[in-house]
Amino acid sequence: MNSEDQIINRVASSSLITFDLEKFYVPGDRVLLDIKDQLYQGLILKEKNFREYIKNNDWSAFKDKYVAITCSIDAIIPTWAFMLVGIALEPFAKRFIYGSLNELESELFRSALDTVRWEDFSNVKVVVKGCSNIDVPTAVYVDLVARLKPFAGSLMFGEPCSTVPLFKRKEAR
Question: How many domains does the chain have?
Fold first, then answer.
C-alpha cells in the first residue's frame, strides 16, 4: 500500500480536545423530598405540626443520598421550613439543595467542574461532547461555556467528526 492509498484519520491527528461532561458525573442516589404532605389541608404549613414531623421523621433514610428539597404544591411556605429540613438532613445526606432533581444534578456537576484547571484550556480547540450515556442538564452545558470561553481558542459542540461551531477567538491584533 503506498502513501497515496492510506486512509488518514484527520480527527485523531487534529489538535482538538474533547471535553466530556459525562466524566464529571457524581455517582450516588438522588432523592426528591417533597414537603407537600406536611401541609394542613394541602394549603398551609402549621409550625407545630411541621416541627413534630421534623422531630419524628426517620432522617437516616437519606443516609449517603443527594437530596432535592421542594414543595410541589403552590403554597406559601416560610423559608425557615426548608431550613429545618436541611438541618435534619445534614447529619445523613451527602448533599442537599432547595430545588428540583434537575437543579440538584446541575449543582453536582458544577461542584465537580470546580475542580478543573480552566487555564489548561488556554488557546485550545475544544469540542464539548454532545452524546452521552448520562443525562447532563442543559444548564451544565451553559455553565461550561461560561467557564471555557475566557480560555479556549475555539469551542464546538458535538463529536469531533461532526461539530457545531460555537465560538472562535479572534486573533490578537
Answer: 2
